Design the sequence.
């Protein structure tokens, strides 16, 4: 029951992260609030300076938003890998939870071991990706 609940929780989290990513991506495509100035190098215009500052602030915000998108993509990938791990782990857990799993198994032993092997490979990959 715990594993199924965790799969459902991870699916919900992936959907929330994808919605957040979509909102941030739409925010990135909006035009900047400040406009570039056509003022020459020798001229001093405070309004033009403010516009340049606003544009540079937008560039900084855009860079941080792009970094946020990368972090969201990483979180989405981690949740998807967790779903895969849990799905690999579910059938062997059900098999081992049955009262007569040792004398009358629901899954053949090689199938249960293969699923657990795949789960361990996914776990290793997930940990490597998390460290990157």
Sequence:
């Amino acid at each position: 029951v715990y594993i199924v609940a965790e799969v459902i929780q991870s699916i919900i989290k992936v959907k929330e992260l994808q919605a957040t990513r979509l909102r941030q991506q739409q925010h990135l495509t909006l035009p900047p609030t400040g406009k570039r100035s056509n003022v020459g190098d020798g001229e001093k215009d405070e309004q033009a300076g403010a516009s340049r500052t606003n544009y540079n602030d937008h560039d900084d915000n855009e860079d941080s938003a792009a970094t946020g998108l990368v972090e969201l993509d990483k979180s989405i990938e981690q949740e998807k890998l967790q779903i895969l791990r849990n799905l690999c782990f579910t059938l062997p857990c059900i098999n081992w939870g049955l009262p007569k799993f040792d004398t009358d198994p629901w899954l053949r032993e090689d199938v249960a071991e293969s699923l657990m092997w795949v789960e361990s490979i996914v776990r290793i990959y997930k940990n490597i990706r998390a460290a990157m």
Notes: The CA atoms of residues 20 and 121 lie 29 Å apart. The chain has a mean pLDDT of 79. The helical segments are 2-29, 46-97, 109-131.
